[in-house]
Specification:
The longest helix is centred in the last third of the chain and has 25 residues. The protein has 498 residues and is of the alpha/beta class. Helices cover 43% and strands 13% of the residues.
Length: 498
């Protein structure tokens, strides 16, 4: 019989089920972790077991669901025969039972879950530039655009706000360049094209209101269990830059918003990031520094991060060194590069005199893993070969009908499902343009009402002609008519010349 502990998550049993129970102490859950292994070795089950354990302990969880397999957390296990056999093998048969966990589905595109939104203003120029794949010069222009928005009090909520402001910056680039540096039409055009690509991928739905309140990730149900927030990421994976930027944005927002937590008996929130290598692929150094900073400091806010990837070398050393809890499933050694990765991975564990880690990594069966967690005062435990326990929730995805039912039961639908279009930069700039057009129209009308120069000359000529006629009448009596007519012709000629 497995002796479960209330302050830890039961992971499984060592030595193929014949040894000791293996636990992850809750108090070290904010020291981050790694779940690694080749495809089909059991990473998803391990992730599911950990998510269940944290939820049962009252810790909210956020996880990205790349293949849709994790949606089964909202329904109890079907108790398949192979799961029962594994439970019996590790002495867990009496305690093992199916259970559903409180679940909220999210989706950046609003299709398989409640929409996840933020505003352009909340995304830093650095993250937005990475999302748009801009170079350094174009990123500099993006910084200028954000600066102009701040100084003019323009809220950038969605893509149309940013497009409108880019148009204004382009029109006023000569004036703006003298203050902030060169703003070229080429850079503006590159940003506009990047926004168009982003919109074509459906990412425009990510920007807008109501923006996500991260406190809605940190809820418990009536029984005190932590809510499991599942992000549908199957479609999102087609836009890896958007996926990576979104994850980093969430961590940065949590770091800024949450107060210091100190050493607690359990985390406030735990993140599981699948396909973690996408967070680091082709990332510029300034972005890697940002990731490292957030990972290093966010644990003091009570937030734990678990990265899920195929090989530990997918994670930069500066981040890998901060992951205290590790579950390593089987790796394959088909190429020299894979063999090198196995050697490096084996060197990161506290050795176990019972076996050689480098040899065992390639022979682990499905559901087996090398486990090392933090213990006592935070030192790594000796690595153990562990048979992972079966999950209590359903293995595999649920149907679309079940997903819709869960979404319908969520009280967050009324808060997030409908988009709100508040007044922001687009509306303000449009109003300014309309006002300027109206003033220009009034000025043009007033100018048109003024006598034209040609008309004034004609008026002078008419006045002159009238005066001449008076003179003619006056002098015709004393002078001869021919002299009077000559005088008139001379005066008219002089007026025409003027």
């Amino acid at each position: 019989m497995a002796c479960l502990q209330s302050d830890s998550i039961f992971l499984g049993k060592t030595d193929d089920g014949a040894g000791e129970n293996e636990y992850l102490p809750l108090k070290w859950g904010n020291r981050h972790g790694l779940i690694a292994g080749a495809t089909g070795t059991g990473k998803t089950v391990t992730l599911q077991v950990l998510a269940e354990g944290f939820s049962a302990a009252g810790v909210p969880v956020f996880l990205s669901d790349i293949k849709g397999d994790l949606s089964g957390l909202c329904r109890p296990s079907a108790m398949e025969e192979f799961l029962g056999k594994r439970a019996a093998k590790i002495g867990f048969a009496e305690e093992y039972a199916g259970a559903a966990f409180p679940t909220v589905f999210w989706d950046l595109f609003g299709e398989q879950g409640h929409p996840v939104r933020t505003t352009i203003s909340e995304i830093s120029p650095l993250l937005l530039s990475r999302m748009l794949e801009l170079n350094d010069t174009q990123e500099g222009v993006m910084n200028i655009v954000f600066r102009v928005a701040d100084e003019q009090g323009l809220l950038l909520l969605d893509l149309k706000d940013l497009r409108a402001l880019l148009g204004v910056v382009n029109e006023q680039r000569a004036e703006i360049s003298t203050v902030y540096g060169n703003v070229s039409p080429q850079s503006i055009g590159a940003i506009q094209r990047g926004l168009l690509r982003l919109e074509d991928q459906g990412a425009d739905k990510f920007f807008g209101e109501p923006a996500l309140d991260l406190k809605d990730f940190m809820r418990t149900d009536r029984e005190g269990r932590g809510m499991i927030n599942i992000l549908a990421a199957d479609r999102l994976m087609n836009s890896p830059r958007l996926y990576a930027t979104f994850l980093l944005w969430m961590l940065s927002e949590l770091f800024e918003e949450l107060p210091e937590a100190g050493d607690a008996d359990r985390p406030k929130l735990v993140f599981f990031f699948d396909e973690a290598h996408l967070l680091f692929d082709e990332a510029p150094k300034v972005l890697l520094d940002k990731v490292e900073q957030v990972v290093r400091l966010i644990r003091s806010k009570g937030v734990g991060i678990f990265f899920i990837t195929q090989s530990p070398d997918d994670i930069p050393d500066s981040v890998l060194g901060q992951l205290g809890n590790r579950v390593q499933h089987a790796l394959r050694a088909f190429t020299p590069k894979q063999q090198k990765a196995i050697r490096l991975a084996s060197q990161t564990y506290r050795p176990n005199p019972a076996f050689k880690v480098e040899e065992v990594i390639t022979t682990l069966g499905v559901g087996e893993a090398l486990v090392s967690t933090l213990e006592n005062k935070g030192e790594p435990s000796i690595v153990q070969r562990t048979l992972i326990r079966p999950p209590s929730s359903l293995l595999g995805p649920v149907s679309a009908e079940v997903r819709r039912a869960v979404m319908g039961e969520s009280r967050l639908g009324s808060k997030y499902d409908e988009t709100v279009d508040n007044e922001s930069a687009y509306e303000i700039l449009q109003a300014r343009a309309e006002k300027a057009a109206k003033v220009a129209e009034q000025e043009a009308a007033a100018k048109a009402a003024e006598p034209k120069p040609a008309a004034r000359a004609s008026n002078r000529q008419s006045v002159g002609e009238a005066a001449v006629k008076s003179i003619t009448r006056a002098v015709s009596s004393s002078l001869g008519r021919s002299i009077a007519n000559a005088l008139v012709r001379g005066i008219l000629g002089a007026l025409k010349r003027k």
